[in-house]
Design a protein that fits this description.
alpha+beta, Aminopeptidase, 5-stranded mixed sheet, 5 strands, 23% strand
Length: 147
């Protein structure tokens, strides 16, 4: 079950932060040190999300299912100065109980549409080399790996 894709607002920051922490802990377990995952703090992430939502050029969207945020993505210009004309997918996270439900695909499609609307002919993202699940997900969405 997917939901309504909409722009994120400041009031969404706590829900986005909680979702980010839960998703990181579930998806990255065994891939990054457990003490790193244990130190993730929703309050700290909320402050980061609030800052990101105020950042010029950054576009964050959420999937809203009956008033509940179940996923988010964030895009904007590439942070690498060598990629001036490219967009970057900064983040795409789905609540763990919505993994493999179509929410991620809906967010990815929304991100691609966002890049097109912003005039980016190319876009990229970063993921852990060892994160096979993410690599399969993005590959199924038409993204190609570059080393």
């Amino acid at each position: 079950m997917t939901g309504r894709l909409r722009p994120a607002c400041a009031d969404d920051a706590p829900a986005i932060a909680g979702l980010l922490v839960a998703s990181c802990r579930a998806a990255h377990a065994g891939l990054v040190p457990q003490d790193f995952l244990d130190r993730l703090c929703p309050e700290t992430e909320c402050r980061r999300v609030q800052g990101a939502l105020r950042t010029e050029g950054r576009h964050t969207q959420v999937i809203d299912q009956q008033g509940e945020i179940v996923g988010f993505s964030s895009i904007g210009p590439a942070r690498n100065a060598g990629c001036r004309f490219s967009g970057e997918l900064y983040a795409l996270y789905v609540r763990p109980d919505r993994f493999r439900s179509g929410v991620g695909r809906q967010l990815l499609e929304g991100a691609v549409a966002g890049f097109q609307g912003l005039g980016y002919a190319r876009a990229f993202l970063w993921t852990l080399d060892c994160y096979e699940g993410a690599r399969r997900f993005y590959g199924a969405g038409g993204w190609e790996r570059e080393d």
